Amino acid sequence: MKVVVVGAGIVGLAVARALAERGDEVTVLEKETAPARHQTGRNSGVIHSGIYYKPGSAKAEMCVAGARSMYAFAEEHGIAVERTGKLIVATDAAQIPQLEVLEERGRANGVTTRLLSPEEAAEYEPHVRCVAALRVEETGIVDYVGVSRTLAELTRAAGGSVRLGAEFVSARERNGGIVVRTATDEIAADALVNCAGLHSDRVAAASGLRPRVRIVPFRGEYFELAKEREDLVKGLIYPVPDPRFPFLGVHLTKMIGGGVHAGPNAVFAFSREGYRWRDISPKDLLSAGTWPGLWKLGLANLSPAAMEVRRSLSARLFAADLSRLVPGISAGDLHRAPAGVRAQAINRDGSLVDDFAFQTAKRQVHVLNAPSPAATSALVIADSVVRKLDDTLA
């Protein structure tokens, strides 16, 4: 079977590797000049445990299984990886009930957790300040760009092709197959898999579907701790997430290549590839602004959204939030680091698509929502996508 996969992020390459190694003829189309240029290469590199996700959801099941498979893959192929564990810390007593909810959710998902006193938490992170903490053992860090490169190599070794600088334009059924048009040529195939991330809804629309959701970009901005302050953090330190808001809050993450990342926050991006405030795309603004779900989401979250913007513009406020976790961090300890953009699918009614989301048609599978923990879960998502693709051909 000839399959075209759109997108050479970690999910697209995992799908391509799975298809190629079972004997399919695979072509990956990637508009950039290297793999993993967007969400995959611009995150914290965390292997997530699955503690945050609703038991029984695809995110929960795929994240737990995905973490195991990602550790095994990295170790097998000599990719930098470390099982650090992490602390989720309650900085005041009002957060303890939510911390207990996370513990129960983690246990339901098969995650190894333990509630800690402040003294016990200090054994893991001596500089942390908390009234209680939750230790999560399965969390770690990995080089996701290295994973993506290895997946590309394995795809090629199995006979597949990874075409860089090849931009998808459209796809249509023709003569019992799929004709995929790029900016320079056409490819006759039997099936199409869309793993285009930030542009996944557009790829679906250009393939003849009516996407049920709209991708809206949210920029996550990071700082790095100054080198002389890196000893404040031994592993990963997260706040208790606010259940009213869809993001985890700024946190401190030891990086696989050295250093400590602080962040990300979450602000609306004016472009789907808007890594800076000045990156503005009229086309992307029109796409987001004409989707009623964005306005409904914004009106329901005015206060936290305003706080995210203020924190984006002020290193002092960013540092103040971090110092609630680790006292003593100041604006002078922070240096700007490259930002990422999260492809968040939003329903027409303003609700966020909380789980991984797929839309299928004859000979087509479209991955329409795969934000974090998609990198953690990539190898497991790939297996699911392959099964869905086979179902569309049955």
Tag the structure with descriptive keywords:
11 helices, 394 residues, 27% strand, FAD/NAD(P)-binding domain, 2 domains, globular, D-Amino Acid Oxidase, Chain A, domain 2, alpha+beta
Structure description:
The protein has 394 residues and is α+β, with helices and mostly antiparallel strands. It has two domains: 2-46 and 145-213 and 353-393, FAD/NAD(P)-binding domain, CATH 3.50.50; 215-346, 2-Layer Sandwich (D-Amino Acid Oxidase, Chain A, domain 2), CATH 3.30.9. It is 33% helix and 27% strand. It is built from eleven helices and 21 strands. The protein has helices at 10-21, 58-76, 96-108, 118-124, 144-157, 200-205, 282-289, 292-300, 302-313, 315-325, 374-393; strands at residues 2-6, 25-30, 46-47, 81-82, 86-90, 113-116, 132-136, 140-142, 161-164, 168-174, 177-182, 186-189, 191-194, 214-225, 236-239, 251-254, 260-263, 267-268, 334-346, 357-361, 364-369. Strands 5, 6, 7, 14, 15, 16, 17, 18 and 19 form a nine-stranded mixed beta sheet that branches. Strand 1 (2-6), helix 1 and strand 2 form a beta-alpha-beta unit. Helix 1 runs parallel beside helix 5 (144-157) and helix 2 (58-76) packs across helix 11. It is globular and about 65 Å long. The two termini are 13 Å apart. The mean pLDDT is 95.
Brief characterization of the structure:
This protein is α+β, with helices and mostly antiparallel strands. It has 11 helices and 21 strands.
Provide the structure class.
Answer: alpha+beta
CATH superfamily of the largest domain: FAD/NAD(P)-binding domain
CATH hierarchy: architecture of the largest domain: 3-Layer(bba) Sandwich
Which percent band covers the strand fraction? 25-35%
Mean pLDDT: 95
Q: How many domains is the backbone divided into? A: 2
The number of helices is 11
CATH topology of the largest domain: FAD/NAD(P)-binding domain
Q: Could you give the count of β-strands?
A: 21
| Structural Rg | 21 Å
Biggest β-sheet: count, sense, barrel? 9 strands, mixed
What are the segments in which pLDDT stays under 50 over at least 5 consecutive residues? Answer: none
Q: Measure the end-to-end span.
A: 13 Å
Helix content: 25-40%
The 3D shape can be described as globular
> What would CATH call the class of the largest domain?
Alpha Beta
